[in-house]
Amino acid sequence: MKKFILAAALCALATPVLAAPQSQELDALRAEFEQKFNALQTDYEARLKALEGRVQAAEAQAGTAQATAQSAAATAEQTARATPPPEPPSNAFNPDISLILQGAYNDRAGGERPISGFLPAGEHAHAERGFTLDHTELVMSANVDPYLRGFLNLAFLDEEVEVEEAWFQSLHLGQGFTVKGGRLRSGIGYQNEKHPHAWDFADNNLVYEALFGEGLLQDGLQLRWLAPTELFFELGAEVAKGQFFPGSDEGADKNGAGSWAAFAHLGGDVGVSHSWRTGLSYLKARPREREGWVDDLNDVEALTLFSGDSKTWLADVVWKWAPNGNPRERNFTFAAEYFQRDENGDLTCTDNRAEGGACLDLTDRYDSDQSGWYAQAVYQFMPRWRVGTRYSRLSSGSTDFGTNAASLDGSSHHPERWSLMTDFSSSEFSRFRLQFNRDEALVGDPDDQVILQYIMSLGPHGAHRF
């Protein structure tokens, strides 16, 4: 018992001695932890303040940059409004000048060969025979300034010089609009805007010969609008003096317009190898005393004078093929046009009895509803070589000559012509063509024709339309 009490007393005395070192160690750990925690907290607060400072600086810099950009944009807009477009290079206004040499050898019937049943554009067409200097053109074009472009085309035939085209065209009108003014080839149809050196055949089709003589020229203004669509869509309108057939000099001798035209074209691509375009056009003219020479019922030439309205509708379609869109090796083009023309007014058949004719210088009503079409196909089967065929057919309708029916033939005729051609281009600047025509434009007098043609282009020449 005494031993147990003595042991308990010894343990009680030893406990404070052992606890004292443990309490000091805990205090030291606590102090070290608090020191490190305070240091970490101080460092975190410093980093947070530094980050806030950088954010504020970045926001201030962004605001300054935005203000600077807005100011620069406003300044640039004001400058653009006040300053014209940059001047082009010093040689940009030097005109491109090119000369088109075009001649032929014709083996065909001579004399006058009118289109039966149609009032001609002036005198009967005279068929040139043998070697002829067919159609030589001098072309000049250049930018007038950054806003306008000018174009001149002069045609030479023996001692005669004709102004085929002389126009200006806007360059930066905007919104898809283009204005052209002066003498220009009308935008109606498909074939009309092409110059003779760009035709696929040595002569024009019967449709255009009956409607315009060769092609419709306009002295006036043309407005075109190209729509911002995936498909090609174009609208155009023309107002002109109207002195060219189917108009007349007398009808154009007035203030205002003598002819009006409108056209619409739609086109696009089918895959990478095919492209197409279709169009619809309208032409109205008001000729007065329009001259036309016809053969009366006695086969004597008579002068007619027509005054009234001439209205024409034209529909056209074009299809082109080139493998992978590259026409250099092979390509194919199909084109066709159809017209419907209505003319009504008064017709005078001047007195030709002194020459044995039947006209009595009478003026009476004239009403004709005529139509026609052509289709052609041209195939380039290898580089430089092409072949083509074309067929044209007209219907003169049943023409009402009034009392002049006793002097003029009012029966219906169906003139037609078909052609075969092959041509060789030694380069993009020269072409030789051989063509055969079976011509039945003059009913009852068919003619087999052979034409050998050359076309040479000297100097820079702009690209042709689609």
List keywords for this structure.
466 residues, alpha+beta, Porin, 2 domains, 16-stranded antiparallel beta barrel, elongated
Strands across the major sheet, in which order?
1-3-4-5-6-7-8-9-10-12-13-14-15-16-17-18
The top-level CATH class of the largest domain is Mainly Beta
Q: Let me know the number of strands.
A: 18
- Element-level helix/strand string: HEEEEEEHEEHEEEEEEEEEE
The number of helical runs is 3
Strand content: over 45%
Determine the mean pLDDT: 85
Uncertain spans: 4-19, 79-83
Shape assignment: elongated
End-to-end Cα distance, whole Å, is 131 Å
Report on the structure:
This protein is of the alpha+beta class and 466 residues long. It has 2 domains: 1-80; 98-458, Porin. 20% of the residues lie in helices and 45% in strands. The protein is built from 3 helices and 18 strands. The protein has helices at 2-82, 206-212, 249-252, and strands spanning 96-107, 130-132, 136-145, 148-157, 160-170, 177-185, 217-226, 232-240, 259-270, 274-285, 290-295, 301-321, 331-349, 362-382, 385-395, 416-427, 430-440, 447-458. Strands 1-3-4-5-6-7-8-9-10-12-13-14-15-16-17-18 form a 16-stranded antiparallel beta barrel. Mean pLDDT is 85; it is low at 4-19 and 79-83.
